[in-house]
Amino acid sequence: MKLFVGLGNPGKQYEKTRHNAGFMVIDECAKAMGIELSQIKFKGIMGEGHAQGQKVILLKPLTYMNLSGESLIQVIQFYKLDPQQIVVIYDDLDTPVGQVRLRMKGSAGGHNGIKSIIQHLGTEEFNRIRVGIGRPPAGKKVVDYVLEPFRKEEDMEIQSAVKKASEAAAHWLQDTFVQVMNRYN
Length: 185
What we know:
Helices cover 35% and strands 22% of the residues. By secondary structure, it is an alpha/beta fold. It has a single domain, classed as 3-Layer(aba) Sandwich (Rossmann fold). A hairpin with a 2-residue loop joins strand 2 and strand 3.
């Protein structure tokens, strides 16, 4: 069993914002895997199904970004999952728009959603797919930048990154995460 967790904020006002790149990837995974995101439980919206012979759970925590770990830990405890059975997909300021980076462990790097997950899991060792959103222009606060939509000229790049991140997540169903990293990094 594998758990795919996309980070973001619930609500129409956040739907297409930079901070919701993780939600965008989970939506793409759901479409590609034929899994309906229709269950509201564990403080999130989720879907369960099978893809490539494995049970898959897709989760979008509805706790708001800074409390993402509250939802994730409930799913992990209920299904008795090991942190190595999860991949967390989220936006990354230090990666240019349109690029994707994969890691198996590391600090939160200032990302409050990842801080919450590390706190609840008690470890920094879990798989991650980071979707690049780039840095804010000079003078713009990070908090304002991450909560604004992508600019029109970035649409193709973010759509490409969402698709690439979804494909990387799907490849994890058949390969080790190290193999997936080597292919997509």
